[in-house]
Design a protein that fits this description.
This protein is an alpha+beta fold and 374 residues long. The chain has helices at 2-19, 45-52, 64-69, 71-79, 170-186, 189-199, 217-243, 251-270, 278-300, 307-336, 340-367; strands spanning 25-33, 36-44, 82-85, 91-102, 105-115, 123-127, 138-145, 148-154, 160-163, 204-207, 210-213. It is built from 11 helices and 11 strands. The protein is globular, with a radius of gyration of 23 Å.
Length: 374
């Protein structure tokens, strides 16, 4: 029985660890001046391999030779899933191919160029990359159209967007970054695991080495408010500093530290060291998580004419995303707080699984290993 349980936990940890990696994104930067189109499209090598099967020798590594040998296939596949229209369909072609590293692995960098039929008027953009294979995939778009800058997140429900020839309004830019903030907290599994690790004991109190439910919902709500507010304040500070270019840390150090924060937060549930001031833990590690959020903005870029507004929108979006998680978690956790299921399985087993997932994740990030296949 114990052997079966251990095997089950091992398989579950591997699966959760694979899920813990950043969700599929591509980064599309388009510059249109009159009829002329230039673009750079960064697509994860793992996504291209998933769609086209680049790994010819089956060694789970994509080499430059394997990518270069399939250049025409990659270009045809990508361009068939992107369409620009300005007075008609804009003709696009691949002008160069490179590779680059993002925080979550290797990316193919496609350089595109082309011409549109008209030099003025609105631009339509149709994006369909990977939506037939992965509904969670998102495209992060930064478009400069005759000097006006637009940013948005492209999803299966917003795959077609249209942009005017005038500068985007302040509210539009704010709302675009707000949506991105919400989306990136929801797909940021490391941030969610850290937050949940701190929320799990919010409906419990440790008495005589035994966890029991809190007496009132207000007590749990105040604990959660302190934790979430501290986390938000901390990551807002470092997110702003990093996005403004005032502070910079190596991405491997940041990602490893984020994984370590999840390990320690979950371990504190199992062997309590910090009981009554978890908001301090949230604030301390929230400073590190802010650098993780900043990597998203670094990939997409910030419009210089609305820098503060965009940062504010992204921060508000992250906060909205967090509060949605809290709103779904806290009432259910409170109702179940005195049950054996919550104390033993949700809190106890959940903390063990979270810690083990984050440990695998920490080893992968710190030592550049691949312990679990996503």
């Amino acid at each position: 029985m114990m052997r079966r349980l251990a095997l089950f936990l091992l398989l579950l940890v591997c699966q959760l660890s694979a899920w813990a990696h950043k969700a599929s994104d591509s980064y599309l930067v388009v510059d249109i001046e009159g009829k002329k189109v230039t673009a750079q499209w960064d697509i994860a090598l793992r996504d291209i391999d998933f769609a086209l099967g680049l790994d010819g020798d089956g060694n789970a590594e994509i080499t430059w030779g394997e990518l270069r040998g399939r250049q025409s296939d990659v270009a045809a596949w990508a361009l068939s899933r992107l369409a620009l229209t300005r007075g008609g369909l804009c003709a696009l072609e691949l002008s160069g191919l490179q590779v680059d590293d993002h925080t979550d692995g290797g990316y193919a960098v496609l350089h595109l160029r082309g011409d549109c039929p008209d030099a003025v008027g609105a631009l339509g953009l149709q994006y369909r990359l990977l939506f037939d294979l992965d509904k969670l995939h998102r495209g992060l778009l930064r478009l400069t159209l005759d000097g006006a800058t637009y940013t948005t997140v492209l999803s299966p429900t917003s795959g077609f967007v249209q942009f005017g020839a005038t500068q985007a309004s302040r509210w539009t830019q704010f709302s675009q970054y707000l949506v991105e903030g919400i989306w990136h907290i929801w797909i940021g599994f490391d941030h969610i695991l850290f937050l949940l690790s701190l929320l799990l004991p919010a409906v419990l109190v440790l008495h005589m080495q035994r966890w029991t439910g809190v007496r009132s919902f207000g007590t749990a709500a105040r604990e959660v408010l302190w934790v979430v507010t501290s986390f938000t304040a901390a990551h807002s500070i470092t997110l702003s500093l990093a996005a403004l270019g005032l502070v910079s840390l190596p991405s491997r150090l940041v990602e490893s530290a984020i994984a370590l924060s999840v390990v320690l937060a979950a371990a504190n549930n199992l062997w309590p060291v910090v009981e009554n001031r978890r908001w301090l833990v949230a604030f301390g590690f929230g400073l590190i998580h802010g650098f993780g959020f900043a990597s998203v903005l670094a990939e997409l870029g910030l419009p210089a004419d609305a820098l503060v507004l965009s940062l504010l929108g992204f921060n508000v979006g992250v906060e909205v995303g967090q509060m949605a998680i809290v709103a779904g978690f806290l009432p259910v956790a409170y109702l179940l707080r005195n049950s054996r299921f919550y104390v033993r399985d949700v809190f106890g087993l959940g903390s063990w699984l979270t810690m083990l997932v984050a440990l695998v994740w920490l080893l992968e990030r710190a030592f550049d290993l691949k312990l679990v296949s996503a």
